[in-house]
Write a structure and sequence with these properties.
The protein is mostly helical. It is built from 4 helices and no strands. The chain has helices at residues 6-10, 18-32, 42-56, 59-68. The protein is globular.
Length: 72
Amino acid sequence: MSKRDYYEVLGVERGASAADLKKAYRRLVRKHHPDVSKAADAQVRMQEINEAWEVLQDPEKRAAYDRLGQRW
């Protein structure tokens, strides 16, 4: 599990709507995808982005994360 806050990873506020989360996720994927990005850490960054998206896109997981924080 990532040590960074999932909202921070996606660059959104805690109260962001599902549409805002999706928009931020897609923007970051286009920027950091290993096939596109020349950055050395592109794959690690994508793993963080995907992990954050996996939790925040699901309403039940997001509620648990909001309640319990990174120890959810």
